[in-house]
Design a protein that fits this description.
With 422 residues, this protein is mainly α. It has helices at residues 3-8, 10-38, 47-72, 77-100, 106-129, 139-169, 174-196, 216-232, 234-264, 271-303, 305-318, 320-325, 329-357, 360-388, 397-413. The chain has one domain: Growth Hormone, Chain: A (Up-down Bundle), CATH 1.20.1250.20.
Length: 422
């Protein structure tokens, strides 16, 4: 089954509508949030604040991840998607009110935490339900379409957010322009909720099994079961760790790009130019994500999943060297494209590997483990980069650290003796 046939697949296309509309809306929401927090004239952007932002957003979800995993294995994932999107839409109305008033601090942090926590639940539910809609043979292509299309639409949504903000910014206060974008995002999440009604109640699972009470203690038990299941399928565990490390490195490079565009390539006194430049870099990375989706199925067909993940990590290790040698806009653009390009090959190939190995009874909790590890790596990558980066973002140290880490993963964690092609 090829790309076109999968896009026309009646059940898969309904899942794509939910995922893609939500991720495009994510882009709008995140661009408004970044504009308000990092690109406001009265706020000086620095790596530590940005890294702490990642930590604040992601770590709380990692703490409740065990509970979410067991919930997704026990209740209708379609219902979870519907009510989560509704709650996220309502939550963003509150966020827009805070931003309209220019409110910062703990109140804004809490409501933003809720929004991002719900987002992780939604993505975990979509990933867990995908294998029930598509046969195992075209699963790699289905993941390439779903993950890459969603990532690309998130970038496009971010670009739309920047564009809309530029249009209205001249006629209103900056905070009011950001609040308008948040309201647009709220409407987008409402549309995603309505689109889930096109799916049947149990179409995304879980497959019927003995009902158990969902609780935090049960969630921790299920998390242990997820780790035990991954211990049996060590190739899936190594693939998850590889994806997590890659995302952590990508976060470090993203912080580097943010500081370079905000404080070096553009005047610190002109945050709008910095935001536009950062948006261009993210767009270039989005093109890399999109292009990587076309290469992944061919690479897997030629070399197999295990070899292709390893080869993609070797290739990823070479990309940050460009930025290490030269901190210029061209070098940053090339690094963004190549790291995203090969990273997307790692992500979609590993998602298909994990989905093919994990029985539906464990799928929700294993993807919760997956999310917790990826989130932890993103936070770690951000905090390590923040400790190494100067305010200007000009540094060869961070790109070299990312490159070395990717190379270590490819040569040790994915060495053929422990990650053999099958």
């Amino acid at each position: 089954m090829d790309f076109i046939a999968l896009l026309k697949h009646p059940r898969f296309s309904r899942l794509l509508a939910v995922r893609w509309s939500g991720q495009a809306t994510d882009g709008v929401f995140q661009s408004a949030l970044a504009s308000f927090i990092l690109f406001s004239p009265e706020r000086q952007a620095n790596a530590l604040n940005a890294a702490l932002g990642f930590a604040v957003v992601l770590l709380p979800y990692s703490i409740v991840g065990p509970l979410i995993g067991t919930v997704l294995d026990r209740i209708s994932r379609q219902r979870a998607l519907f009510f989560s999107n509704l709650l996220r839409s309502a939550n963003l109305i509150i966020v827009s009110i805070f931003i309209f008033r220019g409110t910062t601090g703990i109140a804004l942090t809490i409501v933003v935490l809720i929004a991002f926590g719900i987002n992780r639940l939604i993505l975990a539910a979509l990933s867990a339900g995908l294998p029930l809609l598509v046969e195992s043979e075209p699963l790699i292509i289905a993941n390439a379409i779903a993950v890459t299309g969603g990532s690309l639409l998130a970038v496009i949504g971010g670009g739309i957010g920047v564009g809309v903000r530029s249009l209205v910014n001249s006629s209103t206060v900056a905070n009011h322009a950001d609040a308008l974008l948040i309201l647009i995002a709220s409407a987008g999440y409402l549309m995603s909720a309505l689109l889930t009604l096109r799916l049947k109640k149990l179409e995304l699972g879980p497959v019927k099994h003995k009902k158990e009470v969902s609780s935090l203690s049960q969630g921790l038990t299920d998390m242990r079961e997820g780790f035990k299941f991954l211990a049996i399928h060590s190739d899936a565990a190594r693939g998850i760790l590889t994806t997590a490390v890659h995302r952590g490195g990508l976060t470090a490079l993203t912080l580097t790009a943010l500081l370079l565009e905000r404080n070096t390539f553009n005047s610190p006194n002109n945050p709008e130019a910095g935001l536009a430049g950062f948006g261009i870099v993210l767009t270039i990375a989005g093109v890399g994500l999109f292009s990587g989706a076309f290469l992944a199925p061919a690479g897997v067909a030629r070399f197999g999943r295990h070899r292709w993940i390893r080869y993609s990590m070797f290739a990823s290790a070479s990309a940050p060297l460009i930025l290490a040698v030269s901190q210029t806009q061209l070098a940053l653009a090339l690094t963004a494209f190549l790291t995203a390009f090969f990273g997307q090959n790692v992500k979609v190939t590993n998602d298909a590997l994990v989905q093919s190995k994990i029985d539906d009874y464990f799928r929700g909790r294993v993807f919760a483990v997956y999310d917790v590890l990826v989130n932890g790596a993103i936070v770690s990558g951000g905090l390590i980069a923040a400790a190494l980066l100067p305010p200007s973002g000009i540094s060869a140290t961070v790109p070299l650290c990312v490159s070395s880490t990717y190379l270590l993963v490819a040569t040790q964690l994915l060495r053929p003796s422990v990650f053999p092609p099958v």
